[in-house]
Design brief:
This protein has 352 residues and is an alpha/beta fold. It is built from 10 helices and 10 strands. The radius of gyration is 20 Å and the shape is globular.
């Protein structure tokens, strides 16, 4: 009797072009490569205390669903980043994969047409195209990596990455982070647990062996040496905030043994803003106050921002407003610009 045993709930298995094929089609330019090298080094200097006066700011859309709007945002952010570079090192959020608590749109890589067709091959090319454009503009990029496959396609264009609250506890993601070439921020758990992020930092600095793919898309054993450039990201959890001085001090003590001079970034959104995008400015100002009063363990903050404030609901076949998030609600550009200028001015040396 010949009964199928494998893949009983699988409708289709479709081969994806290899990382080498897509990188050959969309190669990194010398200009973009130089920016990635320089910006990763800049984040490392801040992280390890060699640049003690600046803060890293990861700012941009919660997720990118419209390439034109993303490039429009980058074009506005670039001159601002240049003007504020002495006080803030600004990296643009370019998030293409979205973890979901249950179900929902999974991001531009997974569903680039926003129609449920999940044309991942097109999504990978589209994500890489956007990253190339933004890097060539002179603006470094940040993202969240959700699996060990995507980095083979886009990681050469990323200057900083996050491991999210839903995946920080995952062994797969910790192993992946141990081999990444850029600094990595581990978020605390969705319920607020700090220990999972601390454990992730410890795990990611050690060597690992795990199953992944190589540049030709072949299943491979990946051997890593460990990543020395790690930190935690406080994002609140379980409906509670954790950006106040007490929580920051607790986080500082928890990772004191990791040998990182400035191991704490604050996510001004999510539970820290009570999921109200309008409160992100309040959180950012409090973080800045702590930093100016001597909490040197703070290395930066994150802001969710788009061309226009708020969010809209994506429904298949319904036209979307330009420059408005379809995932988390975001600050609008005008408020973002004012807030970043305010933060930079507050970091300027006080007159004697």
């Amino acid at each position: 009797m010949n009964r199928p045993i494998d893949n009983q709930h699988v409708l289709e298995i479709k081969a994806l072009p290899s990382p080498r094929a897509i990188k050959t089609k969309l190669p990194i330019t010398d200009q973009a490569a130089a920016l990635v090298v320089e910006s990763r080094a800049a984040v490392r200097r801040i992280l390890h205390g060699q640049d003690a006066d600046r803060l890293v700011v990861i700012v941009g859309p919660c997720s990118i669903h419209d390439p034109d709007a993303a490039c429009d945002y980058a074009a506005r952010l670039k001159p601002l980043a240049d003007n504020l570079k002495d006080r803030l090192f600004i990296v643009m959020r370019t998030y293409f994969e979205k973890p979901r608590t249950t179900i929902g749109w999974k991001g531009l890589i997974n569903d680039p047409h926003l129609d449920g067709t999940c044309d991942i091959a097109t999504g990978m090319e589209l994500a890489r195209t956007i990253l190339l454009k933004i890097n060539e503009l002179g603006l470094p990029c940040a993202t969240e990596l959700l699996d060990p496959i995507s980095p083979q396609y886009i990681a050469d264009l990323i200057s900083w990455t996050a491991i999210g609250a839903r995946t920080t506890e995952s062994q797969t993601h910790r192993e992946m982070a141990s081999g990444l070439s850029m600094p990595v921020g581990f978020k605390n758990g969705t319920e607020g647990s700090l220990q999972v992020a601390v454990n992730a930092m410890t795990s990611a600095r050690t060597p690992h062996h795990f199953v992944g793919i190589n540049a030709d898309g072949q299943t491979s054993i990946i051997k890593t040496m460990g990543n020395p450039d790690r930190h935690i990201v406080l994002r609140g959890g379980g409906g509670k905030t954790n950006y106040d001085a007490e929580h920051v001090a607790r986080a500082e003590a928890a990772v004191a043994g990791e040998g990182i001079a400035r191991p704490i970034m604050i996510d001004c959104s999510h539970d820290n803003s009570s999921k109200d995008h309008r409160r992100q400015g309040l959180v950012a100002r409090e973080v800045l106050r702590q930093f100016r009063e001597g909490r040197q363990s703070i290395m930066g903050l994150m802001l969710e921002s788009n061309l226009h404030p708020g969010k809209q609901t994506w429904k298949q076949g319904v036209p979307l407003a330009y420059g408005v998030s379809i995932t988390d609600a975001c600050l609008g550009w005008d408020e973002t610009e004012s807030l970043l200028v305010e933060l930079a001015e507050a970091l300027a040396p006080r007159p004697a």
